[in-house]
From TrEMBL, chain A:
Name by which UniProt lists this protein: Acyl-CoA dehydrogenase family protein
Domain Acyl-CoA oxidase/dehydrogenase middle: 130-224
Key word Flavoprotein present: yes
Pfam families reported for this sequence: Acyl-CoA_dh_M, Acyl-CoA_dh_N
GO molecular function, one term: oxidoreductase activity, acting on the CH-CH group of donors
Cofactor needs: FAD
Keyword Flavoprotein in annotation: yes
Species the sequence originates in: SAR86 cluster bacterium
Keywords, sorted A to Z: FAD, Flavoprotein, Oxidoreductase
Automatic annotation (TrEMBL), chain B:
Residue ranges occupied by any Acyl-CoA dehydrogenase/oxidase C-terminal domain in the UniProt entry: 201-308
Domain Acyl-CoA dehydrogenase/oxidase N-terminal: 2-80
InterPro entries tied to this protein: AcylCo_DH-like_C, AcylCo_DH/oxidase_C, AcylCoA_DH/ox_N, AcylCoA_DH/ox_N_sf, AcylCoA_DH/oxidase_NM_dom_sf
Family statement: Belongs to the acyl-CoA dehydrogenase family.
Protein name as annotated: Acyl-CoA/acyl-ACP dehydrogenase
Keywords: FAD, Flavoprotein, Oxidoreductase
Length: 378, 347
């Protein structure tokens, strides 16, 4: 019988209680009192912070010990990531490598690749960028034109990738490229390469976003030689690999916590004397957030059980992004007449970055298409 | 097959056999579906999770919530939630739950000793299904504590009206003498128990009906042809149904938390569920009706059995604004920097 999409309740393990307290204390010790906390995972990066996290064993923590991991569960990892985001810690440097690039190497990479990259990621010393979009390829990912031709001992890469967050600071990119001419099967003939961003034939050009930050980039490849050893998985299997990657990318707490610090600062502003509309708004945002978090933990449980919850992840991202877009909009009109500089800065940073929430890692239209497929509509 | 699946299958089979749309329509016209109630009672489903000592059939409280949710998903016109709440209140004070459908009221009453018994006086409003029940459970609380009274309804003259969903509700005055054996004092805040159990059961009822309107809408979109193809093939429709699926999934998850929120009461989880689910009803019913077109606006189409009930249930036992404010007060009292702790403590 039809039940829609199910999110079975999952309880965080007892082990996570102590872990949570440990992470919470660590972060409080790290952040200066005047640090403007921002729970958008893309909002700040600190190499020192990432390395100290690595020393604690909180990067790549689900990975096997032979690659430096801690062999902890996805649920333990969930606790660490949500604590870092909720506190507004600068997680940007290692985020992509920890969340998806490392997992991708673990799942599809060669043993040599795992041994080369994973221990460095775990130490918080090696950062990755995503190489999916191109100037003419956004939502229609299968239309990528960056291509590689086979040469002796490797591939020669030409083209460009765009919107690659952190490519100006990161070490590598996992790029989806066309390695065979496009056929009637648009999804065939794509491959994933590890590209060294410090290669002299790679040019990284920053793009200013509307908030004035230079976070994302346009990355050009001009006859970049990629050795065979840097091909992930099987040449031609890139589409299946990239789709699998999205399950990890879409369901986490970063999909609904981006505006969380705005809520915290709003509660601070209303203080002891909230009016009924402010109380109701706080309650509404909490009711949504608690429920989203429980759904997201369900998906962490599915990942732990070895499932690939693509549709569920898309649903959480759509619901979560819609929520985090709404938070600053609703708080803005109910804020007290006089507010602190800290509140204003937190709110304004969120408003300026909010358009990216429903674009990055799949637009809301694409996500709703994925959900519709899960419902059997297409 | 686990026990929960077995219960679910039993409930669905009974509802499929005995709660077709014609039964719900007949109830709206005043025909009480006695056979359906009797079957559910005979199967021990009306008092699941209530201890045998209190007249129930034992087991988990979750089984009752499951029954209430499944019945709501087909618009079953029965006071299953009221009977469950009544039984739970009886269990709390050690009273024996009467047989048959029972309804509840938490309006303000006064109870005064009179001879060997008590006089109960007050006015009750919007008491669900009171015209079809032989017993009313009244609870009232004041600074001194709470009491529960078992009130026979036969002698009380009721003014019966219908909710937006066409379900009966009554207003009436009570001024009756009760024997001491029908009055139970309790240290528990029974009024709060009634209010929270009401909000919890309305929440699972809404989750059930929401799942059902998603199912109906998906099915309709795949069958209805326009411009030479099923409307499900249009992106405009797909996107709307995806939004509906998101709201429904959130409601289901919020309702799931209630399985462990009733004994003892977890007021925070109940508030989260009632606020979140009531909030979703407006946009969810809007999408379901838009997808169904004019067909869904007719009395003949089964969609209205769910949507009209949803429009009632979101307001009963506190609408979203009420529960949002209650959550807001709690969160503000913890202080801004404890907000995250409040969320993680909720699990």
């Amino acid at each position: 019988m039809f039940q829609g999409l199910q999110f079975e309740p999952v309880k965080l393990p007892q082990s996570s209680v102590a872990l949570r307290a440990e992470v919470r204390a660590f972060v409080e010790g790290e952040l200066a009192a005047d640090y403007l906390r921002n729970s958008d995972f893309n909002a700040g990066e600190s190499v020192e912070f990432s390395q100290r996290l690595g020393q604690r064993g909180w990067i790549g923590m689900t990975w096997p010990k032979q690659y430096g991991g801690a062999e902890r569960s996805f649920l333990d990892r969930y606790v660490v990531t949500e604590e870092l985001l909720a506190a507004g810690a600068p997680v940007g440097a290692h985020w992509i490598a920890d969340r998806q690039s490392g997992g991708q190497l673990l799942k599809f990479g060669t043993e040599a690749q795992r041994l080369e990259y994973l221990p460095r990621i775990v130490r918080g010393e090696c950062y990755f960028s995503i190489g999916m979009s191109e100037p003419d390829t956004g939502s229609d990912l299968a239309s990528v034109r960056t291509s590689a031709v086979k040469v002796d001992g490797g591939w020669l890469l030409n083209g460009s990738k765009i919107w690659s967050s952190g490519a100006h600071m990161n070490h590598y990119m996992i790029a989806l490229v066309r390695t065979e001419a496009q056929s009637t099967n648009r999804h065939a003939g794509l491959s994933q390469f590890i590209v060294d961003l410090h290669d002299p034939n790679v040019t990284v050009k920053g793009i200013l976003n509307l908030a004035g930050d230079s976070d994302f980039n346009h990355v050009f490849f001009d006859d970049v030689f990629v050795p065979d050893a840097s091909v992930i998985g099987t040449p031609g299997n890139g589409w299946e690999q990239v789709v699998s990657e999205l399950g990890y990318e879409r369901s986490g707490p970063e999909r609904f916590l981006s505006a969380f610090r705005v809520l915290v600062e709003f509660i601070r502003e209303v203080g002891d004397n909230p009016n009924p509309a402010q109380l109701a708004l706080i309650g509404r945002l909490l009711a949504n957030l608690v429920t989203l978090r429980r759904m997201s933990i369900s998906v962490a449980g599915m990942l732990e059980a070895g499932k690939t919850p693509i549709t569920e992840a898309a649903l959480i991202k759509d619901l979560g992004n819609t929520y985090e877009r709404l938070v600053p909009e609703l708080i803005r009109v109910l804020a007290p007449a006089k507010t602190s500089r800290r509140f204003q800065n937190t709110l304004h940073q969120c408003i300026l970055h909010a358009p990216s929430f429903t674009l990055r890692s799949g637009t809301r239209e694409i996500l709703r298409g994925v959900i519709a497929r899960g419902l059997g509509l297409r | 097959m686990n026990e929960q699946q077995l219960i679910t299958d039993t409930i669905r089979r009974i509802l499929q056999d005995q709660c077709a749309k014609v039964t719900v329509d007949a109830a709206e016209a005043g025909v009480w579906p006695a056979g359906l109630w009797q079957t559910l009672e005979d199967n021990g489903l009306t008092l699941a999770g209530i201890s045998e000592a209190s007249g129930g059939t034992g087991g988990e409280l979750a089984a009752s919530l499951l029954m209430i949710r499944e019945a709501a998903s087909v618009g079953a016109p029965l006071p299953l939630a009221e009977t469950f709440i009544a039984a739970r209140l009886c269990e709390l004070v050690g009273a024996q739950m009467p047989v048959g459908p029972v309804t509840v009221s938490g309006s303000r009453f006064t109870l005064t000793q009179e001879g060997a018994g008590y006089r109960l006086q007050g006015h009750a409003e919007n008491v669900a299904f009171a015209n079809l029940c032989s017993t009313l459970i009244v609870v009232s609380s004041d600074a001194a504590g709470s009491y529960l009274c078992l009130v026979p309804l036969a002698e009380i003259s009721q003014q019966v009206t219908q909710t937006m969903a066409g379900e009966p509700q009554s207003d009436f005055a009570i001024n009756c003498l009760l024997p001491a054996s029908a009055v139970f004092a309790s240290a528990e805040d029974l009024s709060n128990q009634l209010w929270c159990l009401g909000a919890a059961t309305r929440s699972v009822m809404m989750a059930g009906a929401m799942t059902s309107i998603l199912e109906q809408s998906v099915q309709y979109a795949m069958e209805r042809q326009q411009f030479g193809r099923p409307i499900a093939q249009f992106q405009a429709i797909q996107q709307q149904l995806a939004i509906l699926a998101g709201e429904v999934a959130a409601c289901q998850r919020a309702a799931e938390s209630l399985n462990e929120a009733l004994a003892p009461l977890n007021e925070f989880d109940i508030a989260i569920a009632k606020a979140r689910i009531s909030e979703a009803v407006g946009s969810a019913t809007d999408i379901a009706h838009q997808v169904h077109g004019a067909m869904g606006y007719t009395m003949e189409h089964g969609l209205n059995l769910r949507t009209r009930r949803l429009w009632c249930w979101r307001d009963e036992y506190g609408n979203e604004d009420y529960w949002q404010q209650s959550i807001g007060r709690y969160v503000v009292a913890q202080g801004a920097d404890n907000t995250w702790k409040t969320i993680t403590d909720a699990g």
